[in-house]
Amino acid sequence: MTKIDSRIPAGPLAEKWSKHKADIKVVSPANKRKLDIIVIGTGLGGASAAASLGELGYNVKIFCISDSPRRAHSIAAQGGINAAKNYQNDNDSVYRLFYDTIKGGDYRAREANVYRLAEVANDIIDQCVGQGVPFAREYGGLLDNRSFGGAQVSRTFYARGQTGQQLLLGAYASLNRQIAKGTVKSYNRHEMLDLVMIDGKARGIVARNLITGEIERFGAHAVVIASGGYGNVFFLSTNAMNSNGSAAWQCYKKGAFFANPCFTQIHPTCIPVHGTQQSKLTLMSESLRNDGRIWVPKKKEDVEAIRAKRKKPSEIAEEDRDYYLERRYPAFGNLVPRDVASRAAKERCDAGFGVNDTGLAVFLDFKTAIDRLGEDVIRQRYGNLFQMYEKITDVNPYHEPMQIYPAVHYTMGGIWVDYNLMTTIPGLYAIGEANFSDHGANRLGASALMQGLADGYFVLPYTIGDYLSHEIQSPKVDTNAPEFAEAEKGVKEKIAKLFSIKGKQSVDDIHKKLGHIMWENVGMARSQESLEKAITEIKALREEFWRDVKVAGTNGEFNQELEKALRLADFLELGELMARDALNRRESCGGHFRVEFQTPEGEALRDDEHYAYVSIWEYEGPDKEPVMHKEELKFEVVHLAQRNYKD
Amino acid sequence: MNLTLKIWRQKDAKAKGGFETYKVENISPDTSFLEMLDILNNNLIHEGKDPVVFDHDCREGICGMCSLHINGHAHGPDEDITTCQLHMRKFKDGDTITIEPWRSNAFPVIKDLAVDRGAFDKILQAGGFISINTGGVQDANAIPIPKKDADESMDAAACNGCGACVATCKNGSAMLFVAARVSSLAKLPQGRVEGARRAKSMVAKMDELGFGNCTNTGACEAECPKGISIAHIARLNREFLSAKLKD
């Protein structure tokens, strides 16, 4: 069995990162010029990493599937980014941010990584302000903050409801500066289809030019995966349509271990599904829970009246409303973490109190806040979100409450990395949502942006130098090497196979079926029975895909159907691994809720004695079961306890 | 709803394009415009025909990937939204809808409704940034910025780079796009140091890439999904002129 070495530095938690930085090697400017790095993805992680590495003097090639690096899905993050600046004097600190993140993740994240994340978070805010990110400000000219779920302090920095956009534009601007200088070369509309390894090290990629269909080879001394999460395995999610898990999955199939694949975040506040023709779900930012109150009617007859449109929600008397989060979790109220809020919404809807015709919706109501602060203040804070809601639903949320329901949003699981963010393949790194490291079983709001930028600006540029310091004698990677030829051949054969099937179902037809299996069996409530069923059904669907899919067009053109087919082929494998991982984990923690394991009050029941580990999966071959390894989580500072958001 | 669609089809950048007519049936008014095109494409695939290529990604109005001229309007008939936020309730049963790609020399068609907006990246690479490296910056609150300035900077920064302004402008000018970036940085003290250089080099790059001149018709502002005001063009002009005066 391969030994898992997380390479966590020795010493007290608060000193690990400083000590590690002092211990690791650096590369001289003259040698940096000779070293090539490939970065996959241009979201917050990829763009910030590529820009920073370019500034350091490395030769960087960055790849994105969109027409511009600025389109990456980080752009859609709405609410904010956390940091422990303590500008509000509310007793925030690096330790408190660290502690909240570990607790929010239900004690399934690595202490050392999370502490480092909290430590560098403050630098991110400084960096972004320096880049000209227009964060919200107070009248005194200083930065404003708001609160997010799972925290009792105000530490979230924001730019209206477009924080992700503004942070990404900041990173993209830094990237553009390096592109102009020639240190970074950007390959837009290119998709990585395989990782190339030579002598056991990551040495390059094979990518498809999405416009011409050409299969191209790129060599490098290190490869960084920053391709985001795999939530689109569910078909319907808040992820962008083109977000996919394929780059990470190719790495897994080349030997990089995959960690905690079952840890999926179901976000509590999304616009409910309206019908079978729906293509994606739209998030309503968690920041809305600062001022919005979540409720359903107390009486079934009111529920019926609202569903039949005989009553408007605003006509339900105050005493007939069940503000169930405030009732169940008095200390945190509407700002409980996402997994808790999602399950509570499901519980009310399963009990028959859902407020739309499908029975799968609850209210998010701003009446109290509008009465207290006035409509103008609410418009200033959330104007673009309210507009977005009205455009989609045709309901004005200033007058009637929003309807919301949980939806797949983020994947905490991902490629396993050590403290240096290196995978089990030497020279292959994974950052941002693509790795598993910082959020445990549940990510807190406003922490994804923090992690992407922490990894890209402040962690990877240091740690990758330690590896590359041993590569200064390595010549430029020769893309004529047989390993490249073999990878290219494999990719071409896979594409040819897809076109040759000429079946009866479109890619979307099959993807919807996969989404249904995943949501019903590997979604918000999982059981041994549902997970075993999912594994069987996904296997059958995978077979169906390779027998009956119909991929329109040819390879030698801009072919969006082929892009989707290649991604779905990977989702059909990844989904099974998610179910397998969920089946193995016989406990409930964070976003992973096994119905067999809950407290009498319906809260997640963790089993620290048996499951305080990261489950790490190793690929064994196409028709073989993967092997699971464990990284035991050692908690040296935090005391393990059942999460309590009640008092 | 039952609809007739007249869609621009073009095999690649070099091919000559033309309109094709399609029918879609039983579309729910709650369906988004792009979901309606998904349905059309799924039908085309089942009929053994080539689906229509169009750019899209986030489908919530923020990424700027979707485009489309719909019945002569960039992003369709509704105001302050991108195409992906447009819903079929804005149309009537039996309507004929004409769908074209962005029309601009600077945005060549790649296929069908997808165009190449790489010129926007190039303009930003010419100076749409503040020249700082990672690390070594001062504390964020060491730079107080009047709320009004920060808000105006944010107004301009809302530009999502979709290209509707260029596609709408009869001259194919990119002035609103350039102005949004220049103006956003010009409102902040961090961006002042290289303000003159930024305005000159971005405008020069815009001219070099074949975008037209601005004649202040205001069409760009009217079609901008993010409501970017042409007041930012005035600020860009001020920045540019004062930079030139210093030469």
Give a quick rundown of the structure.
Chain A has 647 residues and is an alpha+beta fold. Helices cover 38% and strands 14% of the residues of chain A.
Write a structural description.
The complex is a heterodimer of chains A (647) and B (247). Chain A is an alpha+beta fold and 647 residues long. Chain A folds into three domains: 13-263 and 412-468, FAD/NAD(P)-binding domain (3-Layer(bba) Sandwich); 267-409, Succinate dehydrogenase/fumarate reductase flavoprotein, catalytic domain (Flavocytochrome C3, Chain A, domain 1); 482-611, Fumarate reductase/succinate dehydrogenase flavoprotein-like, C-terminal domain (Methane Monooxygenase Hydroxylase, Chain G, domain 1, Up-down Bundle), CATH 1.20.58. Chain A is built from 18 helices and 19 strands. Chain A has helices at 16-23, 29-32, 44-56, 94-104, 111-131, 163-181, 246-253, 300-307, 324-328, 338-353, 367-373, 375-393, 448-468, 482-501, 507-521, 528-548, 560-584, 608-611; strands at 36-40, 59-63, 81-82, 156-157, 184-187, 190-198, 201-209, 215-219, 222-225, 258-259, 264-270, 293-297, 321-322, 362-365, 402-411, 414-415, 428-430, 613-618, 627-632. In chain A, the strands form five sheets. In chain A, strands 5-2-1-9-17 form a five-stranded parallel sheet. Chain A has a five-stranded antiparallel sheet with strand order 11-15-14-12-13. Chain A has a four-stranded antiparallel sheet with strand order 16-10-18-19. In chain A, a hairpin with a 2-residue loop joins β6 (190-198) and β7. Chain A is globular. The model of chain A has no long low-confidence stretch (mean pLDDT 96). By secondary structure, chain B is of the alpha+beta class. Chain B has two domains: 3-111, Roll (Ubiquitin-like (UB roll)), CATH 3.10.20; 118-246, Fumarate Reductase Iron-sulfur Protein, Chain B, domain 2, CATH 1.10.1060. In chain B, 36% of the residues lie in helices and 11% in strands. Chain B contains nine helices and seven strands. Chain B has a five-stranded mixed sheet. Chain B has a two-stranded antiparallel ribbon with strand order 6-7. In chain B, α2 packs antiparallel against α7 and α5 (175-186) crosses α9 (231-246). The N and C termini of chain B lie far apart (61 Å). The mean pLDDT of chain B is 96. The interface between A and B is large, with 81 and 80 residues.
